[in-house]
Amino acid sequence: MLSSFKLCKKIKKSMNSTFKKIVPFYFIFAGLVFFTILSNLYRDGMFCDGLYYTTISNNLANGIGSFWQPKFTEMIFPQFYDHPPLVFGIESVFFKLLGNSIYVERIYCFIIFLLAGFLIIKTWHLLVKDQQNLKPYSILALILWILNEDIQMGYANNLLESTMSIFVLLSTFLLFLSLEKKTPLRIFYILFASLLLVCAFLCKGFTGLFPLGFFVLYALLYKNISIKTLIVNSAILFVGFGFMIALLLSYEPARNNLSNYMNIQVIGSLSGLRPENSRLSHFHLLGRFFDKNILIILLVSLWIILLKIRNIFFVSKSIVKKSILLCFIGFSGILPIMLSIKQASYYIIAALPFIYMSVALFVSESVSIRFQQWKVNSISYKIFFALSILILISGIIYSSFQWGKIDKRDKSTLIDVHLIGQEIKNEKFVSFKNRNFDGTLSAFFFRHYKISLNSPKEDLRNYEIIEKSIDTITNPKYKLVNLPTIKYNLYKLDSSSE
Q: Are 155 and 112 in contact (CB under 8 A)?
């Protein structure tokens, strides 16, 4: 008993010492969060897709549309079935509790980001519980994760994949946990994981279901699972998922929503009827994955080469297996998307944590050895520590200057939206004419003022908005409203000329 206590104390002391040494990594990660996530959240403006989802969620909070029949605007997607509705439902709770400020969706985005990071840490700790000295190195996975530009864009711009990743990470964590539990508890964890996968499906559809193959992938690498156990575990996972989906489909509003989603989005994408994000090659996504990770690939390769030259690179067989399993899980979330030519690199946001945990785990033992040898009073360590502080302070300063600014992408549009919106804030419908469809403009008007833009072919509205580059209005009943707009002119119907 006494020897066990001394051992625990020794392990704890060693972990504390290791943590102190790798504190600079935490400073670097925090600095990157300020540079990439918070600086974006501090600014007004949002990527078009995320803006759609924010508008729909805000509508739901304000009684516009319903959970199973969401609404974008009165004229565009008055019934939105392009994606399942769970994210809108969750985010609408934030609007109900915190109001309609643009910072509500930003608080939601940041909470989702923090939850994802927390689940990466918890999964890492579970995987290395028999090698306690590696626990602090979960920070390596977090740094690789935040360096990916799709992670930066997705979590800062309210993409559905970001919320879906929470359910995917948590379900996989429970599946890992189930491997070491006895039958009653094991079944509970697997069924709970299947419920979370139903939630992942209700966020973004089939792209969140890749953990269903977890036990098969595990059995490919580990011989401690019998064929019978593999079949039973997989059956519980699939049957649990199928039963809950069947239960959901027995409710007519849910069945209507999901059948429309299947017809509009899934079948449309597989048949090539959805032109957005359509690619010439099924391998486009794989190419983009390697393009966007070239820096990480080079850094990790350089680290391994340098350590091999110095004969201090080491990776144990158990870590190799775990690393390969995580890699398998990650790519099982990437490869199925390639069946469709409708591809975008941010579709794989939920799969990326497993890839980066795999890479970080593979090098973690060598990093641990190197840090044990590194003296904290050495000049090189002091330089590393100083650089990490510099990154953190620079990130805080840079992000603070972004507060209240408008994103360059949306600046001219948002300036016009607020100038025109204040002028016509009591209107519900406004005629609109532009060169190409602009979903962002429609989203901003409905998000901030609940104004729907519609075609000028309808009955005459009190106001008409026209893109300046094609302003050819000939109707004498409309008079130009003098506003310092950038991209759009506003015309008002002159009631005296009727």
A: yes
